[in-house]
Amino acid sequence: MDIPVKKLHPAARLPVYATAEAAGADLCACLEAPVSIAPGETVMIPTGLAVEIPAGYVGLVFGRSGLALKRDLAPANKVGVIDSDYRGELKTALYNHGSAVQTVEPGERIAQLVVVPYLTANFTETDQLSDTARGVGGFGSTGTR
Questions:
Q1: Could you tell me which residue ranges the dUTPase-like domain spans (predicted)?
Q2: Which residues are annotated as a binding site?
């Protein structure tokens, strides 16, 4: 599938799959200088890119496991949603979960973009839902083991 990508900044780097079987393409920070993120702080990191996700698909922006594990940095909203009609710059709000200041360098891989098809549901109001074995149980009701 071809996805048009517009560079909004000359230093922007196109999304790249790190391996042949990777589901997510890496998104890189498009910065003029390093950006520091204090513990408990969220900073919006630009990519310098806009994309044209095809109709019937959605771009999902996930954190990178190494960034979260090694540096305590993860997207503040956990998963970003890029709708097919959005044409603005892709940005990632990185949150510092740790106790030390973290620095994001220009060109550093900050997130990954996964493009998947989706279905649009028709929501219909009702007074009754069908019964299931689970019922209304939630929030840990099925146990931990």
A1: 13-143
A2: 64-66, 77, 81-83
Q: Output the pTM of the full model.
A: 0.89
Mean pLDDT of the chain: 95
Question: Which band of pLDDT confidence, cut at 50, 70 and 90, is reported for residue 41?
Answer: very high
| Residue range 76-104: mean pLDDT, rounded | 97
CB-CB contact of 13 with 28 (8 Å): yes
Confidence of residue 51 (pLDDT cuts 50, 70, 90): very high
* Class of the CATH-defined domain 5-117: mainly beta
- CB distance 55 to 84 below 8 Å: yes
- Tell me the binding residues for substrate: 64-66, 77, 81-83
* Residue spans per domain, the chain: 5-117
Strands 16-17 and 80-82, sheet pairing: unpaired
